[in-house]
Specification:
alpha/beta; 294 residues; two-stranded antiparallel sheet
Length: 294
């Protein structure tokens, strides 16, 4: 991506180097890494997926209070570069969604980005680095341990700055859903359904967040000419390897569609590309489409 000269968002809380007690809970971006970790350590990857808790668009369970490590934290140059890039991507989402909301007679309230290492205490509870990037609707914050991007490259083969931007855009998509009321309505519906039916609602939420990431990328490119050759392929590859079917087949050798919570690879790629192509918010109603057609 062409990010030279772009502004960095000021809606950032940098708590890297602090320590917090962490209880269970999985973020939306971390499910694949958790399953692969379980696979590599002899655990049951499928159970890791099935036991994931999706709360607040990717929050975690409650945990104990945070505590300072008392030692200065010195980030690597690579991490600082990723931090600057993430702040610039967040600034781009602020510009784009502010314009889109204004056109609809709404006011966009940007989320804060919390950069952490190892563990963090969010409004949705405690979370660790294995959680991956997540959005918490309770405090309207995005949480990222920047080592996730290195893990994407090493463990998943998903690399490139636009792949990283897609991850951030997806989590911001959950914030957009929250502002529009979609997240609350979906969670209320999930609470009254059985697990399989609730999973289907979760899939619709996730695919819409993929679409919204595409909408952001469409307008960011129109405004800043930010996309370079190969960028779209990077994001598509990322969407592919975090599909539920890809995850389950890699971990177990077979898939169980009834346990999907994020959508199969082809669906994730489809909805991201649709948002990227049209840039129209109204084209992303994943809740009206027959489930089999998603």
């Amino acid at each position: 991506m062409r990010m030279q000269g772009r502004r960095e968002s000021t809606h950032v809380r940098d708590v890297r180097g602090s320590r917090a007690k962490m209880a269970g809970g999985l973020g939306l971006g971390g499910l694949l890494l958790v399953a692969l970790f379980a696979y590599m350590t002899g655990g049951n990857p499928l159970n890791a997926v099935l036991n994931a808790v999706v709360e607040g668009g990717g929050g975690a369970l409650s945990a104990g209070p945070g505590a300072s490590s008392g030692e200065p934290y010195v980030p690597t140059p690579e991490e600082e570069e990723l931090a600057s890039f993430s702040k610039k991507v967040l600034a781009g989402t602020e510009d784009v969604w502010t314009d889109i909301f204004r056109q609809q007679g709404r006011t966009y309230e940007p989320p804060d980005l919390v950069l952490f290492t190892d563990a963090v205490q969010s409004g949705c509870g405690g979370a660790g680095k294995q959680t991956g990037p997540f959005y918490c609707s309770a405090d309207r914050c995005l949480y990222i341990d920047l080592s996730f991007f290195s893990n994407m490259r090493r463990e998943l083969g998903a690399d490139g700055d636009f792949a990283y931007a897609y991850v951030i855009g997806h989590e911001v998509g959950h914030h957009v859903q929250n502002l529009l009321g979609t997240l609350t309505r979906a969670h209320k519906e999930m609470a009254r359904l059985d697990k399989e039916a609730a999973n289907r609602v979760s899939v619709r939420l996730e695919l819409q967040a993929d679409f919204l990431a595409g909408v952001w990328a469409h307008h960011d490119n129109s405004r800043f000419a930010s996309l370079e050759d190969g960028d779209i392929e990077e994001a598509i590859r990322c969407a592919e390897v975090i599909g539920d079917d890809y995850l389950q087949k890699k971990a177990r050798g077979y898939v169980q569609p009834e346990s999907f919570t994020h959508g199969k690879s082809s669906s994730r790629m489809k909805w991201f590309k649709k948002g990227l192509t049209t840039g129209r918010l109204e084209d992303g109603d994943t809740f009206s489409v027959p489930y089999e057609s998603l």
